[in-house]
Write the structure tokens for this entry.
Amino acid sequence: MTTILGFRSLLLISALLGASHSFAFVMRPSLSRYDLPTSNHLKVQPFHSRVTGTISHSSFQTDLKLSSDEGGTAVAAKKLPPYPKIGDVVRYTDLDGGRKDGQVLVGKISLIQPVLTSNPNEEKQWLLEISELDDMGDGYFGDYPMRERRFKKALRKLPEVSPVLASFVRSADAYKVPMDENKEPKPWYDQYRMDGYEGPAAVKIDQEVVESDAERYSDLKGMLIRDAAIVGAIGALFAQFGYGTEDALIYAAGALAGVGYLFFLSIKTDTLGSPTAKFGKNVSNLRFALPFFVLLGVAIKNIYGGDNKVGFETEGNILNTVTKDQFGAAMIGFLTYRIPLFLRQLQPVLGETVSDVLPGSAGMAMKMAQEAASQETEDLVSLTNTDLTTILLVCGPSGTGKTTLVKKLVSESQGRFIEPEWTDRNLAGAQFEVMDRRGDFLKVESSGRYGLSIDSVLNGVDKDSDKEQVIVVDADVELAKSLTRFEGVRIVGVWVGLDSIEKIQNRTKLQLESGEVKIPDGESADSVLRARVKKIVKDIEYGVISGIFEFTILNDDIEQS
């Protein structure tokens, strides 16, 4: 039987063979993988030399070895397993699962490292760190919540795991894994390919970036130490005029200890990841003793020549000779190094006032940054409030009733609030396809018929109307993310939710039972519910940390909301 690989592939094979007797082609996994029949034969003429090459096809690539028999027939051999890589979905067993042969689990490879041995001639072995995936049912496996993920790690040797041909399903936020007749994950191959494996490919390091970062770090370190010294000197001058020479000197000694604290801390940072890291850490720990040395110096000064005149007759702790005023001056001086750090953190809030307060290079750097920022915003000065399109963004997880709230708001606002128009594929025809290719749509419905364009949101209001109209967008999290990327709009964010996940889950159950939420073929109501609840948790996380929502509505009662 003759195997047909395609006209172009046959032409390439013929050109490569030339005058060969046996040959081999290797094609690596790419977009998709296909198992070529091993029993079929590709008829070629017998030749007298060997040629190897690489064939790439537009629709697939695969590991393929061909060899000719004595009659000149090339036989396709079984393709080889892949090499492991970080991020692969694998099947492995856990002997603590309660079963004699182990519980079958599915996870993702998060780390690959060699196993060190004393025998250099021994074949290299590899150890994998695997992050277990949560079995969501019906062959779906997803990540555990962040708080549980660190407890779901396992170490396995490379021969103990099997690659799985999994595909990521975005709607379920999980991997779909083929299952065998026993309802267990079906491996793609029994083992990974190990011959010739040299480990994960090393990430190329951009030396220019490393050198640039090192230079910036050095500048920052010098600036912090210099600013701490300048602020300490200014504080000592104030202490001189306010409290006298003695307290000023003690304050200056404390400030010098603060500068020393930063210096020793930089030693620890400089040696991180180097062979001298342990030595740098030990030396750096001396910074904790600097305040003690200052107080010890004050105590010795009091004993030998201070006002206390106690000499060697002092009993007990030598530090008892330090007065409260002296202790306060030394500690305040020591903590002076924190002042420029604190003011730098407040700079985004206080603006130019901080640059006026900070000394030396810190103040100059802030002034330069402010000048650059004001230069970038000059183009926005011409925009008045009337030039900005106000968008009332109503967002929240599915099942919270945000769509009902938006419909009610629009219907009762007497034209004050309006929704943007969606483009209908059936009416727009070819124009819809053009807009879709150009990326003009913020969102296209799952049915593919309706699309929400950027223009309909930005120019949806009637500028000739005697009423000041506002666009209201009923958005999921993905649409909200898209809207926040556009300039020239003022977004008023409203987050709609419920006071518990259980209530959202119950509403989702009702939507499933009523048919409002469709259950895809091959899935069950439980798997859809679990996937939606998992997505809802991620949506709530975005609503909390995004910072774009000024108002929150707990929609337990639609009329009250």
Notes: The first helix runs from residue 7 to 17. The mean pLDDT is 75. The chain has 17 helices and 22 strands.
